[in-house]
Design a protein that fits this description.
Shape: globular
Number of helices: 13
Strand order of the largest sheet: 7-6-8-5-9
CATH architecture of the largest domain: 3-Layer(aba) Sandwich
Strand content: 15-25%
CATH class of the largest domain: Alpha Beta
CATH superfamily of the largest domain: Periplasmic binding protein-like II
Oligomer: single chain
Radius of gyration: 19 Å
Keywords: Signal
InterPro entries: SsuA/THI5
Protein name: Nitrate ABC transporter substrate-binding protein
Number of strands: 10
Largest sheet: 5 strands, mixed
Helix content: 40-55%
Subcellular location: Periplasm
Order of helices and strands: HEHHEHEHEEEHEHEHEHEHHHH
Pfam families: NMT1
Length: 349
């Protein structure tokens, strides 16, 4: 299946509006901080993001308030899964989405954008039942593969499957079953599907009790992409920070301060990761003490959050190479162009 830019954009928008997981989070309450006034003002950053534990932690511990006092800027937040809709209406200056969905965002919203920061890697894994002898997706041709959408991380896996096994994921060598993202690993454990593109933080119980296991030594799509196409790279990104290009160009101080704030957030994550999982278990789709303990250990070994929000030109080039792979494997059409990046690593305001 080859997606044109318009088809891809419509699919991406449908995904955004379906309120599925796109961030580090589960299915929980919204962002802390004041609600956005929706009207652009100098010195105010209108930030729209899906529910997120790091952001909630920074608000509840006073980090955001201190940042506002120190910088003189104010950040207004809107907690919503409909980030695309607010962006299209001009009511958000910065949102977050997967890097490989940015061209669809531009096409659907008709707004020129630029990627200003990175946040977390595309973390989905291929899971099978524990007693399944399959070693790779090549062993699962003809089987039922559960996905929560045919875009998002499925785009990356489609390109990787073609590259690794010369197989076609969607409309090809597998029976694609679209199901609720939070139920995929349970469907797998019950035998209603044979494999899934699943997020580990939504599969904690089944991974912990051993009813399912990951293929490819537990590597995510980002891990495999880097291994095969961009050694040392930490993407492709499940979430980057994307700004309206006209706003970014006109507000370099706000952009730099925003990135500083998120660098502080990433540092808080590294220092207080276990506390955040305990404090916001809903963001990780865990509830029992056993699942919370499992998630702590899992994230310690497979942390998908990056160490630094800023990036340099080489990182941007490596991140863009996912589009080269998707075009070369026929997953997207040649009319899908790379997103624009604003490298700021080492640059002062």
């Amino acid at each position: 299946m080859t997606l044109s830019i318009r088809t891809w954009a419509r699919a991406v928008l449908a995904l955004a509006l379906s309120a599925v997981l796109l961030a580090v989070t589960g299915c929980a309450a919204g962002l802390g901080g004041p609600a956005s006034s929706r009207t652009a003002q100098d010195g105010v950053i209108r930030f729209t993001f899906a529910p997120d534990p790091i952001w909630d932690y920074m608000n509840e511990t006073g980090v955001v308030a201190q940042w506002e006092r120190d910088t003189g800027y104010r950040i207004e937040t809107s907690a919503t899964w409909d980030e695309f809709g607010l962006f299209a209406g001009g009511h958000a200056d910065i949102i977050s989405t997967a890097s490989f969905e940015v061209p669809g965002l531009e096409e659907q919203t008709r707004r020129e954008t630029v990627i200003i920061g990175r946040y977390n890697a595309e973390r989905s894994r291929i899971l099978v039942r524990a007693n399944d002898p399959a070693q790779t997706l090549a062993d699962l041709k003809g089987k039922r593969l559960g996905v929560f959408t045919t875009v998002s991380g499925t785009l990356v896996w489609s390109a990787l499957v073609k590259q690794m096994h010369d197989a076609q994921l969607v409309d090809g060598d597998y029976q694609i079953i679209v199901a609720d993202i939070q139920n995929l690993s349970n469907l797998l454990a019950r035998g209603e599907i044979d494999a899934c593109i699943c997020y580990p933080d939504l599969s904690a119980r089944e991974l912990r009790d051993g009813s399912v296991r990951p293929l490819y030594d537990g590597k995510s799509s980002a891990d495999l992409f880097a291994e095969l196409n961009a050694p040392g790279h930490d993407g492709p990104m499940g979430n980057v920070f994307v700004g309206r290009k006209d706003w970014v160009d006109a507000h370099p101080g706000e952009v730099s301060a925003f990135l500083d704030l998120w660098d502080r957030g990433l540092a808080e994550w590294r220092a207080h990761r276990d506390e955040m999982i305990e404090r916001y278990p809903q963001h990780f789709a865990v509830a029992t003490p056993e699942d919370i303990a499992f998630m702590k250990a899992y994230v310690a070994e497979h942390d998908w959050v990056v160490d630094e929000v800023r990036f340099d030109p080489k990182w941007a080039t490596d991140e863009s190479s996912v589009f080269d792979l998707m075009r070369a494997t026929g997953v997207i059409g040649d009319d899908v162009t790379d997103p624009k990046f604003l490298p700021t690593e080492g640059v002062q305001p």
